Structures are given as structure tokens and as C-alpha cells.
Amino acid sequence: MDMEKIPAREGNHNLKDYERARQTFSWDSIKSNFSWFETGKVNMAFEAVDRHADNPDKKDQTALLFSSPDREEKLTFDDLRRESNKFANVLRKYGIKKGDRVFLFMPRSPEFYASFFGIIKVGAIAGPLFEAFMEQAVRDRLQDSEARMLITTPDLLKRVPQADLPALEKIILIGEHEETVDQYINYKVEMEAAANETEIEWVDLEDGMLLHYTSGSTGKPKGVYHVHNAMLQHYATGDWVLDLKKNDIYWCTADPGWVTGTSYGIFAPWLHGVTNVVRGGRFSPDDWYHTLGKYSVTVWYTAPTALRKLVSAGKETVEKYDLSALRHILSVGEPLNPEVITWGLKAFELRIHDTWWMTETGAQLIVNLPCLEIRPGSMGKPIPGIEATIIDNEGNELPPYQMGNLAIKKGWPSMMRTVWNNHGKYESYFIHGWYVSGDSAYKDEDGYFWFQGRLDDVINTSGERVGPFEVESKLIEHPAVAEAGVIGKPHPERGEIIKAFITLNDGYEDSEALRDEIRQFVKTGLSAHAAPRELEVRDTIPKTRSGKIMRRLLKSWELGLPTGDTSTLEE
Ligand code: PRX
């Protein structure tokens, strides 16, 4: 689509000369923004919380503006320091130390953020889990990480496996609960008894901080391992891309169970000491506009799937609210439709800045910067310090307009350092020093990158990444299902929806009731967002001679596309 280019935004952003910044930039130049610059010993929690709490001008500033349909709370930087100190002391009391994995499985809440920083303060590794996960999803992650401790709520405890987790010593419960099981610890009781001060564990830049599980096209979800050093990039992009200033009220709509909700829902804003809005509860256009207006949000980071729903809600809805404080909008997670950008120009009189990155990359890499023109449909250009290109399967760089693998030159601060328990998997992402993203794209003659699709079978539904293998594995656990093949099917609002093809075991017959039951089985066993919206019963599932499900073929059939090479198809 040939859409008009949108000129660079006038404003108070720090990065004004992109080309020059790219030529002269080195990551070392960011280091002087941190307290560890001299000592080399670091802790992300100190930089994001305590440093501001130690500053008399900042300590009473609101750090967290939390609201959900039934709760509203404000925490200053000083509050957040105290609460995270207390939690660090609770963890220490139960023997948690540097390098241990401590997982969080709960809805967004002030306690989440206090616990999260408490974990980091003792040098442990935080593993946030999305609250909608069901038992299997929780089990896979706790097993693989060998988490020693889990923080959850009595409600969600039902989805925490009672067996098969030998490493899990204690479960901290936030909220009233009656069971007096030895393994359970009461958050409130422990926090009341804990001291306000703690010793921060000073670690090395390369020490672990965070494990985010994410899906690939094969195997169980993998633990993407991030280190404290990532803060360099969280800080730099918070400045250049989010354009954060001292008095900003910032809202990132992502849940901290996903990487956007940590890198840009926690680290980037708090490294810059801005007021961070967290809104719990479900999405609705009115609720979101209300949140933007009520808190006078100035910088807003959200996702195409939500923006598309806001577009559908129409102009009448947005016009009910006073959004005059808003000055900068960003998007991530899936392709940002040019139509949405056009609508943003009308509805907010603002550009919407697409940003591209992944769980694995830890922070933004290719972005639309305030200082650059926007070409609607393009993800933008690599930030200073990042070299991006398009390569073929042999690792050769391709000229402009040729589609290929989107790849990034190895060596940026926020890159994952390994895949937990599977360093071989980590190494498999690289070819000739390039990190191969799994996305296909091309670049134009001016260096703008244009996303084309995933090269593997990973599904992106409403901005959430789902591995087909996980869903297939769950499907075949159902007694009626013999085989399953799962694909992403394009959908106007959700990007993709999950479609499953199954064959049935003898004695079962296709019916709507059975299909409903199977869908429900995935929903309650794995997670709602992984449940197939469409389910089709077939006589066979196409497979290669070596027994691999040919998802590509299923997809071509579904979409009425040419089937391509089927020479490996089993008879
Ligand atoms: O396919 C790309 C898509 O989301 C994938 C990464 O998903 P995840 O690790 O869950 O991280 C999402 C948020 C960082 C990418 O490989 N993706 C992400 N951003 C964009 C995108 N696709 C198109 N345009 C984007 N801006």
C-alpha cells in the first residue's frame, strides 16, 4: 500500500540527529547514567527504585499508580523501596539467594511489583507467569526452571500442580487462605514482621535477573534468560523511543507475564523515574480511554490488537474523553496496520510509533523514532547501537526490497544470554554472527524495515505468541483426539486466530458438542489464549515421511493457496 509518509514529530525528544547518533554511538556512553558506573557492581532494583527513593526530590513522587475495577492504590518510590526491601527480607528468611529462581503467578497488583523487585534485590531470578495460565502451562515452566519459590494468590493456587515439582519449596500466598499446609507462607504476616531495610545483593552486569518463557514452533516453551546488563538498553530506548521526561505519566498496557510488561512496564519507565500507570482487569475501549484521561497519561505504549478494537469502537467513543495530556503513542507485538496509524492521526492528532523486538531481544531494536518520518506499514529503523539486515538462509546479506530473514548483528546489551537448560538452542539462533529472528522482512533503499511474516509456525494471536506444538500436545491428551495439527489463520482484529485440525480415535464421532468440549479442554488445561477458536475434524493430518506434521500444507489448504512442494508428504 502506498500511503503518505508522516513527517518527523516536533517535540522535546533527545535524539534529534539519527544518522549522526548511529555513527558515533557506543553502548559505553550510556553507562554514566548509572550508579554502578564506577564500581561495576550493579542491581537493577537499585537503579529503578532505590536510586530515586534516595533522592529527596523524588522519593515522594508517585512511582506506581495502580488501579483495577476493585482497587486503587498509589506507591511512591519510597514506598516501593520499603515494600521491596521487606519482601527481599522474607525471601532471605526462607533461604532464597543469588541465582535461585522465584516465580510470580498473579494478576497485576502493587504486591506484584514489590515482590518482583524484592526478588531482584536478593540477586535471584524472577519468573513472571501470565495469570491466565492453566495447570499444564504452570507446571512446564516451574519444572524447567526448577523454581524454589512461587508467589501466587489463593485463587490461582488451584492451577498450581500439587505434585511433580520437587524443587519448589515454598508458596507465598497473597490474600486470605485457610489451608494450613507447611509449604504455604502468608504474604501479609511475613511482610508485617519483615524489617524495612535490606542489604542489596550487588551482582555483575552479566548475572541473571529474569526468565521469560516463550513459545517456538517445536517443543515446550523455552526459558529466555536475561541479565542485569539489559538496563543499558532499557534506559537508552526509554529515552530515544519512549521519549520519557521527568514529569511524564506513562502507561504500558502489557501484562508483566510478557516481556513488554517487564522491559517497558517496569524497567524502562522506572529507570527514568517516571510515574507508571498499571491498569488491571479486562480490556474495554471505554475503560482504556477513561484510564488515559483520568491519570492524564502522556506516553502510552500499547498493541495493534487493542488499537484495532479502539478503531472499531469508533470516533464517538474516543470523543467522550479528555485525552489532551497524551503526547506520544507507541505500539508493539504485531504488524501495525497503516489504517490504524491514519486513524490515530485523526483520533489523537498524534502519530503511532511502531516498534519491533522480541522476548529474546529483551528490548526494542527496530523502531519508529520521534525524529524520523513514519512510513505507515514499516517497523522503522534500527536504534543507534543496533545493526539490522536481511540475510538469506546461508547468511548472505540481501539488497533492498529482497525478502529474507530479519537478522541482527550479535552483541547488544539486552539480548538473552541463554535458553534455560538448553544452550544449544540458544546457539542455533546464530549464523555468521547474526541473530536470526525467525521473522521475514525486507528493507527499503532508505533503511526502513518492512515486516512480512513469521518464517516458522509460531502463531501471533492478539499479540500473544503461541507455539503450535504446545496446543497440539494438549489436544491429543483429550481421549477423543488421535492427531492434531495447529495453524494461525489471519483474522482482521486479532492478527491471527488458532485453528486446529484433528483426527478422532475410534468410537468418537464429530459433533459440535465434542468440538466444544475439546476446545474447553485446551482452555482449562493450558490457557484461554491458546485454545483453538476453530476446530475441524479430518480423516487424516498431512505428515512428512519422517512423521512431522505439515502445518504449512494445512495452512495452504485453509487459505486456498498453492500447496508448494509436497514431495516429502507421506503417502
Ligand atoms: O513476529 C514478530 C512479532 O512478535 C514476535 C515476538 O513476539 P514476542 O517474543 O512475544 O514479543 C512481543 C513483544 C516484544 C516477533 O518475532 N512482532 C513484534 N513486534 C512486531 C512484530 N511483528 C510486526 N511488527 C512489530 N512491530
What's the structural blueprint in terms of helices and strands?
Blueprint: H1 18-24, H2 44-53, E1 62-68, E2 71-76, H3 77-93, E3 101-105, H4 110-121, E4 125-129, H5 135-145, E5 149-152, E6 170-173, E7 184-186, H6 187-193, E8 208-214, E9 222-227, H7 231-240, E10 249-252, H8 259-271, E11 275-279, H9 285-294, E12 299-302, H10 304-319, E13 328-332, H11 338-347, E14 352-356, E15 366-367, E16 381-382, E17 388-391, E18 404-409, E19 418-419, H12 423-427, E20 430-431, E21 434-443, E22 449-454, E23 459-461, E24 464-466, H13 468-475, E25 481-491, E26 495-504, H14 512-525, E27 534-537, H15 551-559
Parallel strand pairs: 1-11, 3-4, 3-5, 5-6, 6-7, 10-11, 10-12, 12-13, 13-14, 26-27
Antiparallel strand pairs: 1-2, 8-9, 9-19, 14-15, 15-16, 17-18, 18-21, 20-21, 21-22, 23-24, 25-26
Helix pairs in contact: 2-3, 2-4, 2-8, 3-4, 7-8
This protein binds adenosine-5'-monophosphate-propyl ester.
Adenosine-5'-monophosphate-propyl ester (PRX) binds next to helix 8, strand 14, strand 21 and strand 22.
Ions, cofactors and other ligands present here are: adenosine-5'-monophosphate-propyl ester
The assigned CATH architecture of the largest domain is: 3-Layer(aba) Sandwich
Query: What CATH first level of the largest domain would be assigned?
Result: Alpha Beta
Q: Please, how many domains?
A: 2
If you consult CATH, what is the topology of the largest domain? Rossmann fold
What order do the strands of the largest sheet run in, or round the barrel if closed? 2-1-11-10-12-13-14-15-16
What is the CA-atom radius of gyration, in angstroms?
24 Å
Shape field? globular
Instruction: Estimate percent helicity.
Output: 25-40%
| Low-pLDDT sequence parts | none
GO cellular component, one term: cytosol
Enzyme class: ligase
GO molecular function, one term: ATP binding
Domain AMP-dependent synthetase/ligase: 58-418
